Amino acid sequence: MNFDALIYRYGSRRNVVYAKKGMVATGQPMAAQAGLEILRAGGNAIDAAIAAAACLTVVEPTSNGIGGDNFALVWTKGKLHGLNSSGKSPKSISIEGLAERGITEIPKYGWIPVTVPGAPAGWAVLAKRFGRLPLTETLAPAIRYAREGVILTPNVAKLWEKAYKEYKATLKGKEFAGWFETFAPRGRAPGVGEVWASPDHAKTLEQIAATDGEAFYRGALADKIDQFSREYNGFLRKGDLEEFEPEWVEPISVNYRGYDIWEIPPNGHGIVALMALKILSGFEFHHREHADTLHKQLEAMKLAFADGQKYIADPKTMSVTVEQLLSEEYAAKRRALIGEEALTPTSGDPKSGGTVYLAAADEEGNMVSMIQSNYMGFGSGLVVPGTGIALHNRGHNFTLDRNHDNVLAPGKRPYHTIIPGFITNDNQAVGPFGVMGAFMQPQGHVQVVMNTIDFHMNPQEALDAYRWQWVGGKTVYVEPDFPNHLALQLALKGHEIIPILDTSIMGRGQIIWRNENGALCGGTEPRTDGTIAAW
Fold first, then answer.
1. Whole-prediction pTM
2. Is 317 marked active-site?
3. Position 372 in a domain
4. Any transmembrane segments, and where (predicted)?
5. Is 191 within the bounds of a domain?
């Protein structure tokens, strides 16, 4: 496939965006404009990505925050680098400790699912290693937005209202008062077109910027987090924050029809997308709108998820290796299970043989694929008093099954759902892509990759195309524009097809491709308030 031809292909519902000097693609116009502002000020794509990421904690707090995690894939000087800035569980937490409190499963809200937030440290190490500007400059737009206020866009307002209703009905303890004071200051969720500001958020970002993140992990902000946790019998302590360091990792990949598709290794579940693509690479696909194509995609996805949910954990505790899960032999075994009827997936044995995504690029060739999340919307429901820091709830993904690779343990990273993607060809960057949305993410990655490589769609077409989502057993959600005749044919193969109206659960993505001449071509998500800022 010729990516240059693909970039200039017509036919999408919306026009793709082109640029020469730089491009930032996000789910929020103000975040994309902030990234462009930093590019124009002399920053590179890494600086722009940091600026956009920090702004997203303000303009889209329904999906991410200062108290969350982030991951990044960075292409610079001909090499792809991976960053895992996801935090570990507190050193004092344990299954025994939870049992003493009568807890038999990890809750969604409150202090128990809170792990160390990695986002501020991720910004700091990206800036130090690859950036050109200090955090005091790259975080300035986010600080301005938080202090002066931002206007809510339609999709953010919808998610905010949904979260408010759930939290109002569920979160009854005094520890949750800060969330309502911060995110529902008028006694309700702000609506579309209303202005929301958070001066505490601005002050926190200023402290992070002035200290390169040190205030959050070893200074005054860490003290406030520690004090809040102690007050409500949480496990997180300043010592946990002090010991945290983001980890530079080697990205993992599979070759799919001549293109290398890259993901971050576990504890993230990008490997699920790679396992599915590895299985699918053994088939030929000529038409997207064909029941057999969709059937094979769904079956490969189900088999990959079954393995992912059994084996993905903190790499130190995984019972199998990445190499085993991505081996040709194992892919062939899993591929052989795909027949004409829908499977109820089970894991195999390879040993025997609330999220935001953004992409950025500059004219020097730097490209960034970055993802950031608080998980389940606003996260734990906890906001550290006087800081605007909404803490995430990533620990909810741990299991209490002692025989599982992902069992809860002190100082351990949980199974993580946020994944950035990247494509290269012949050791040259094609570009970053991503589709956020918890367990939709690997499924979105597979669909975007196949839309691009197998079905020759340009970036905007690849994102506009209708999506499916396997949700368990033989149940598959499809979007309203999913062709009825295909749904009927899939039902005859044993799939339970359920049309859904809320397309926000189908993920929200961004794409930037670069051609051989350096031209940048971007697509943005139609299911949210996404935009591309180009220069």
1. 0.94
2. no
3. yes
4. none
5. yes
